[in-house]
Write a structure and sequence with these properties.
This protein has 110 residues and is mainly alpha-helical. The chain has helices at residues 4-14, 55-67, 76-98, 100-109; strands at 21-25, 35-37, 40-44. It has a three-stranded mixed sheet, with helices on one face. α1 crosses α3 (76-98), α2 (55-67) packs across α3 and α3 runs antiparallel to α4 (100-109).
Length: 110
Amino acid sequence: GILDPLLQPLELLAGAREELHLVMVPSACCPYGGRGAPGLLLIPSAALPGDGSMSHAISQWLVQAWLGVAHCGASWEENWLCSGLELFVLHRLIEEVSGKSKAMVQLSIT
């Protein structure tokens, strides 16, 4: 599928995951992007236009679901660690899939 190029490098970077369910839903269900819970990622159909324009957002949602960072940290003292780990893995994933120059551009606008 369309996410296959991201899954193998992500598994190499962040480790194996028991299971991650990716569910395509109508855009009205989650208009602001990928949502879910640990082990589940809801991807709005509008996020897959086919031209690659949403690849950064999809990569970020995938990393968040993979690492479970949307559901970690009880306070800011813990949340910054989750955010830092997410950004690090996201940058390495984009670098692995798209090359170092694209990763640097994405990092500068994130």
